[in-house]
Design goal:
The protein has 168 residues and is mostly helical. Helix content is 60%, strand content 10%. α1 crosses α5 and α2 crosses α4.
Length: 168
C-alpha cells in the first residue's frame, strides 16, 4: 500500500489510467506549458531552444540540415532563423562552398541564451520530477528513450541533438 502524498492526498491509482499513451500526451501538454513559461523569462520559445541546441552542438549548419535535425520544413526553418537572427542569437551567412546555401551559426549571445534556456528547462524538470529520486529519474529517462526510439521521427530528433542537453 502506498503512503499518502505530502499534500495529504492519496497517490494516483495506476488502475485508473486507461492508456499510457494518453497519460504521456497529457504530461507532454503540461510540460510544454511549463517549459514555454520558463523559457519566456529568457525570451525564448521551445522551437528556438531546439534550434540553438542543434547549432550549439554542431557549429555552422546549413538551413536544410537544421530543418532536418529539427524535423521541420524549410519555411519553418526560415522563420526560426529569422527570429534568432533578429535577436542576435544566430547569424546566417552564405556558404562559401555553395553560394545558394546559407550556413547558420550560433553567436556568443546565442550561446549565453542557450545556457539560460537549459537552466530554465532544468528547473521545469526539477519541479515536475521533484518526487523522484536521482535513480528514479535516470530510470525514467532510460525508459522514455527506449520508447522514443520506437518512433523514427523522435529517434532522429534525439540523435540530431534537437533536444540535447549540455554535457553532464
Amino acid at each position: 500500500m502506498s503512503s499518502p502524498q505530502p499534500d495529504g492526498q492519496s497517490p494516483l491509482d495506476p488502475d485508473r489510467v486507461a492508456s499510457i499513451g494518453l497519460l504521456l500526451s497529457k504530461l507532454g501538454t503540461a510540460v510544454d506549458r511549463r517549459l514555454a513559461a520558463a523559457l519566456e523569462v529568457v525570451q525564448l520559445r521551445p522551437k528556438h531552444l531546439g534550434a540553438l541546441s542543434v547549432l550549439g552542438g554542431h557549429g555552422a549548419v546549413s538551413q536544410q540540415a537544421l530543418g532536418e535535425r529539427l524535423g521541420v520544413d524549410a519555411s519553418a526553418v526560415v522563420a526560426i532563423v529569422d527570429d534568432l537572427e533578429r535577436e542576435g542569437l544566430a547569424r546566417r551567412e552564405r556558404d562559401p562552398r555553395d553560394r545558394r546555401r546559407h550556413a547558420i551559426q550560433v553567436t556568443p549571445a546565442g550561446e549565453r541564451v542557450l545556457a539560460r534556456g537549459y537552466d530554465a528547462a532544468g528547473e521545469v524538470d526539477d519541479t515536475m520530477l521533484a518526487d523522484l529520486t536521482a535513480h528514479e529519474r535516470e530510470q525514467l529517462l532510460t525508459l522514455l528513450l527506449r520508447v522514443a526510439g520506437t518512433d523514427p521521427g523522435l529517434d532522429r530528433l534525439i540523435r540530431a541533438g534537437a533536444i540535447a542537453t549540455p554535457a553532464r
